[in-house]
Write a structure and sequence with these properties.
The chain has 331 residues and is an alpha/beta fold. The protein contains twelve helices and ten strands.
């Protein structure tokens, strides 16, 4: 499955087949109302799960449970498969305070294969989830350090041939006038991780009108994967160095300490010190930017007081539409 003779190098174009799409189409329509992926993106993820037949799946970033439902449906007939889902938040205020992953309750027949962990960084739960993960779907912050840290948290527990899929790999193209132009993290990661890249063969610019888009037309596919190889563990600098690119937010001091302790267990002292220095630099830089931009400063004060719950707090207070308008001011 990793051979390619099309002249594209270490790239595979994944074209979902009708029989594979039919598995996803067995679901009723109701989950689509909360899904954050387009129909073709869901077909792509569903196809990878059917072709690679993973047994131990890690999902980082759950939100309301849309992608969890797609994954659980794809593995429902595999008696050995289990989905372990992790989310930083226990509930999502912009979605009226709904419990993280609440929509999976609409599909009780799928829940026996699901283990949900919420209320912390993904590294807080990795020991409990354990090794041998052969498929990983990551869809969290989209801003640095977001998924870079999530990938490094997961890597020690991934098999050498694990498949990793990132959503929102083109979100930075969606609206250059808003803070989505900071959403470069997943595009960088899919390029930097060593392995065979899995690209969306069912993408069509003419018909794909879901976000990210310009004037209703999407120009680049927004979901991609990579098949890890053993050599990827010897190419860590390419990943750690991405952390040197500007951050939009900082973990709390307590989270920084927990991250460094975690990295000490799995990574060389050079990389631990590298991250330690970046923490210092990014906190100093964000403080400097706060002093130069009152709008940004107010946002980051709230962010530090409330953690990443700042959007939830604002959402509960002001409502979804006004919240979205307000958050665009901080791009």
């Amino acid at each position: 499955m990793t051979e390619n003779t099309s002249g594209l190098g270490r790239v595979m174009i994944i074209q979902p087949e009708d029989s594979e799409n039919a598995v996803l189409d067995q679901l009723d329509e109701k989950y689509k109302q909360i899904s954050q992926m387009s129909v073709k993106e869901r077909y792509f993820l569903n196809t990878l799960l059917q072709r690679y037949k993973p047994k131990k799946i890690l999902e980082i970033g759950v939100f309301l449970g849309g992608s969890s439902i797609v994954i659980l449906n794809a593995i429902k007939d595999n008696p050995e498969a289990t989905l372990y889902s992790v989310d930083y938040l226990d509930s999502h205020g912009i979605a009226d305070g709904k419990k993280t992953g609440y929509f999976v309750d609409e599909y009780p027949e799928l829940k026996s294969k699901w283990r949900l962990y919420t209320g912390g960084l993904s590294c807080d739960f990795m020991d409990d989830i354990g090794e041998g993960i052969d498929f990983c779907f990551i869809d969290t912050m989209h801003y640095n350090p977001g998924e870079i840290l999530d990938f490094l948290f997961a890597l020690p527990f991934l098999k050498d041939d694990a498949v990793i899929v990132f959503h929102d790999t083109a979100l930075q193209t969606s609206n250059v006038l808003s803070n989505t132009n900071w959403s470069i993290t997943n595009a960088m990661l899919i390029s930097a991780i060593y392995g065979t890249k899995l690209l969306q063969g069912n993408f069509s610019r003419a018909s794909e009108t879901d976000y990210p888009s310009v004037d209703g037309v999407t120009y680049m596919p927004n979901i991609s994967g990579v098949v890890l190889e053993a050599e990827s563990r010897n190419r860590l600098y390419e990943i750690f160095n991405l952390l040197s690119i500007r951050w939009l937010y900082s973990p709390s001091k307590k989270e920084e300490a927990a991250i460094l302790d975690y990295f000490k267990r799995f990574y060389n002292e050079f990389y631990v010190n590298f991250v330690k220095d970046i923490f210092v630099f990014e906190r100093m830089l964000i403080d400097y930017c706060d002093s130069r931009s009152p709008r940004r400063g107010i946002y980051n004060v709230l962010n530090r007081l409330l953690g990443r719950n700042v959007k939830i707090f604002i959402g509960k207070t002001l409502g979804k539409k006004l919240t979205q308008k307000l958050l665009r001011l901080f791009g």
